[in-house]
Amino acid sequence: MESKARLILNAQDSLLVVVDIQQRLTAAMPTGVRERVIEQVKVLLTAAKVLTVPVVVTEQYPKGLGLTEPELVKELPEATTLIEKTSFSCMNIAEFCSEIDKTACKQIILTGMESHICILQTALDLQAQGHQVFVVEDAVSSRSKVNQYNSLQRLRHAGVIITNVESVIFEWLGDAKHPEFKTLAKLIV
User: How do residues 17-72 score in pLDDT, each as one tens digit?
Assistant: First the structure.
């Protein structure tokens, strides 16, 4: 059994991963889902920038699914790594694994599309490699609500931590006395 302290995110040990939030894929999402995911990921990207949490972005077959949503690209920290892939699990991509090794982060936070495919496979593979995996429920989506619900249930049963944007930010801050508390608290609506 893991200690409670280990279940709390720590900005210094976190890597934020934005999985496949691409133009043609977001266009296939149900009404309102695209907007929700983009807004929530923008909040996380802003917090990551302020707290210097590293970010990795993946694009699944960009020739077919398009590039990362421009609204998100504008918010990416300067040192963000962009990785093209065809594998559904990011862990099957050498460049992705190399980025994780480079950061030495043990807490991996997943956002993006689709919950029941790339998020699910990546989360399970990361966990199998000994990483602590957090999936941000209000910053992931699938074209079908049933598929999203199923994937989140599977991940919970597998021991992946399902969280939300507000929890991530407040765990990264850790205390209302944090110098960036007022700045980041304004992001929560």
Answer: 999 999 999 999 998 999 999 999 999 999 999 999 999 999 999 999 999 999 99
Structural domains of the chain in order of their starting residue, each with its CATH number: 4-185 (3.40.50.850)
DSSP 9: -
Contact 91, 97 (CB under 8 A): yes
Cα separation, 53 vs 100, in Å, equals 13
- Determine the residue type at 45: L
Residue 129 DSSP one-character state: T
For 43, other C-beta atoms within 10 Å of its C-beta total: 21
Query: Which residue type, as a one-letter code, is found at position 172?
Result: W
pLDDT tens digits for range 105-140: 999 999 999 999 999 999 999 999 999 999 999 999
DSSP H helical ranges for 52-173: 62-65, 70-73, 94-103, 120-128, 145-158, 165-173
Query: What 3-state class would DSSP assign to 188?
Result: coil
